[in-house]
Structures are given as structure tokens and as C-alpha cells.
């Protein structure tokens, strides 16, 4: 092997998932936002969870539950002051760059630029994520095709509907061929048809690539239909974890007054309160921007 081949092989093994490793492991994860001089309340309070390789895992909970803070720690965007997070066996505190190379992340905040075309937006991400120059055009076209935006690829993104913007953001995250796709409320504010089209894209990509998906949502029906396993989160803690069927079975056992529980009943049972539902409308680019403005405080 030449020294260049050695270096390339070393870099590849450096970012390769450890054999048999789970996609994400969090143990005792805590995070507090400082308020004034003192420490604020814990946004994340001792979270233990495992996302298995190849599954769609949903972190489900109401606004303020701590979902975004948890995934920002997993994606290395927040430090882990207490506890441990591993992504494919790599400790996020010590191997930040290796972890980042394995991830695609779609934040709640708008990440598409309205003054660029869809193709230009995805090409920008391909450059940022160091997709080799010779492969870039093909990989951008592939990512756009995966989210059904080939025809609209050369239109300004500012003319896209809300659902198309979300699918474009998926393409931006997919262009680097990540092993773990992390999506923060990917369907918030969309109508049911647009929500379904976003989920169909996620499903199709997962089937084609075997990639692991970690998604936050507060839509029970989506979690029930599309997630293999769910972590119910409330007030910084995971209140219950399992497949939708397992969680419902536990409620049936523990609360016989619910012989046929929905996930809403499951949440109420484990968290002791209702999960508020979000607003739904298809909207346009500026609606998406407005909907996600609440999340900008996290940035
Ligand atoms: N930058 C910040 N500064 C101070 N407090 C914050 C900040 N970001 C989040 N928080 C607080 O941390 C807690 C958890 O917020 P987080 O955004 O993780 O919840 P969430 O479940 O993702 O809800 P949402 O869907 O509304 O973002 C909330 O009480 C929130 O107000």
C-alpha cells in the first residue's frame, strides 16, 4: 500500500462504525441551560436510550420536553457536561469530527436558502460535507431524485411549498450519504398529505440504504405508523421506551380501563398528562420560516 492509500484506509476506518455497535447510546445524559449566574432547570435529566442500527427511532414528546436538546447533544452541537453519548461506538466528547462525518442532520430551523435553486442548495451541502468534486453533480442529482424533486430542482427554492422545502432539506442531509439521519420535527406545520410525502421519502431512503433514522416529533399518529421504536419524553426524562405495540400492551396490562389504548393514552399513562397537538397547514416558504422561528433560540 502507498502512503496515500494507507492514509485513506486509516481515515475510512477512523469514521467507520465500530462492528456491532448501536447507532446511538446515551447514558445518564444531562443538560442545563444557564440562566443568569446560576444553573437553569435541567432541559435533559438523566436520559438513557439506545437507537439500534437500521431502525427508525422516534423521540416523542410535547414542546419543551427536551427532545431538541437531546439530539443536539447526540449530533455534537452541544457539549455533554454530564453522562455519555456514543454514535456508532464513537464517544461524541472525544471524537467529534468522526461522529459528524457519520451524521446527516435536519434541524427545525430552516436550512434552505430561498434565493438559490433546489439543486444549488443541495450542491452547497455537498461542498460543505466534502463530497469528492468528481462525484458531486451525480450525488446532488441522486439526492434530489430520492426526495422526488428532480423536476423542481432548477426552480428557486423560495417558490417551493412547505412540503417541498422539507424534502429539499432531506436531500441536503442525504447528499453526504450519512449512516445516521437525525430529523428534528421534520413534518411540523405540514398538512397530512405533505407529512405523508416526507415520511414516504424517509422510508424509501431507509429501505434503499439501510440507514438509521432518529426523529423527534409530537405527532402521535406518525410515531405509531412510521417508527420501529419510540422513546416518550417529558420534562427532560424518558418516561417509557419500546415499540408502539409494546407500549400499548404495557398500558393494557397496567390500566385495564384502556382495553385498546392509542399512543395518546400511552403518553397520558406514562407522563401523567396530555400531549398537545400542533397546528397543520401546507403553507409556503415563509410559513415554514415562521413555524421554525421558535427553534432559533436553541441555535
Ligand atoms: N437556548 C436555550 N436557553 C434556555 N433555555 C432553553 C434553550 N433551549 C431550550 N431551552 C429550554 O430547555 C427545555 C427543553 O427544550 P427543547 O427545545 O430541548 O425541547 P423540545 O422537546 O425539543 O421542544 P420544542 O419542540 O418546543 O423545541 C425547555 O424548557 C426550553 O425552554
TrEMBL record:
One Pfam family matching this protein: ABC_tran
Q: Does the keyword Transcription regulation apply?
A: no
**Region: Disordered, residue numbers:** 278-299
What keywords were assigned to this record?
ATP-binding, Nucleotide-binding
A GO molecular-function descriptor: ATP hydrolysis activity
Q: Does the keyword NAD apply?
A: no
Spell out the SUPFAM superfamilies in the cross-references. Answer: P-loop containing nucleoside triphosphate hydrolases
Domain ABC transporter, chain residue ranges per copy? 26-260
Q: What ranges does the record list as Basic residues composition bias? A: 290-299
Q: Which domain of life is it from?
A: Bacteria
InterPro entries per the record?
A: AAA+_ATPase, ABC_transporter-like_ATP-bd, P-loop_NTPase
Question: What is the protein's given name?
Answer: ATP-binding cassette domain-containing protein
What organism is this sequence from?
Kitasatospora acidiphila
Amino acid at each position: 500500500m502507498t502512503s496515500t492509500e494507507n492514509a485513506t484506509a486509516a481515515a475510512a476506518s477512523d469514521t467507520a462504525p465500530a462492528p456491532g455497535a448501536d447507532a446511538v447510546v446515551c447514558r445518564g445524559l444531562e443538560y442545563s441551560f444557564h440562566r443568569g449566574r446560576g444553573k437553569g432547570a435541567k432541559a435533559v435529566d438523566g436520559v438513557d436510550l439506545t437507537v439500534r442500527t437500521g431502525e427508525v427511532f422516534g423521540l416523542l414528546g410535547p414542546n419543551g420536553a427536551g427532545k431538541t436538546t437531546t439530539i443536539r447533544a447526540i449530533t455534537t452541537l452541544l457539549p455533554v457536561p454530564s453522562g455519555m453519548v456514543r454514535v456508532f461506538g464513537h464517544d461524541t466528547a472525544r471524537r467529534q469530527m468522526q461522529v459528524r462525518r457519520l451524521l446527516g442532520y435536519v434541524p427545525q430551523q430552516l436550512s434552505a436558502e430561498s434565493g438559490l435553486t433546489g439543486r444549488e442548495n443541495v450542491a452547497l451541502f455537498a461542498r460543505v460535507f466534502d463530497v469528492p468534486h468528481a462525484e458531486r453533480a451525480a450525488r446532488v442529482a441522486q439526492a434530489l431524485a430520492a426526495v422526488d424533486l428532480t423536476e423542481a430542482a432548477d426552480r428557486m427554492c423560495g417558490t417551493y411549498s412547505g412540503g417541498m422545502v422539507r424534502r429539499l432539506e432531506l436531500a441536503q442531509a442525504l447528499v453526504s450519504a450519512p449512516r445516521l439521519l437525525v430529523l428534528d420535527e421534520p413534518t411540523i406545520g405540514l398538512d397530512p398529505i405533505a407529512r405523508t410525502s416526507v415520511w414516504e421519502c424517509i422510508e424509501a431512503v431507509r429501505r434503499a440504504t439501510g440507514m438509521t433514522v432518529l426523529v423527534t416529533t409530537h405527532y402521535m399518529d406518525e410515531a405509531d405508523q412510521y417508527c420501529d421504536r419510540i422513546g416518550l419524553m417529558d420534562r427532560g426524562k424518558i418516561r417509557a421506551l419500546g415499540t408502539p405495540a409494546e407500549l400499548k400492551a404495557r398500558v393494557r396490562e397496567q390500566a385495564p380501563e384502556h382495553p385498546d389504548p392509542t399512543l395518546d393514552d400511552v403518553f397520558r399513562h406514562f407522563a401523567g398528562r396530555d400531549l398537545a397537538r400542533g397546528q397543520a397547514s401546507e403553507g409556503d416558504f415563509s410559513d415554514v420560516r415562521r413555524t421554525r422561528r421558535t427553534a432559533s433560540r436553541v441555535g
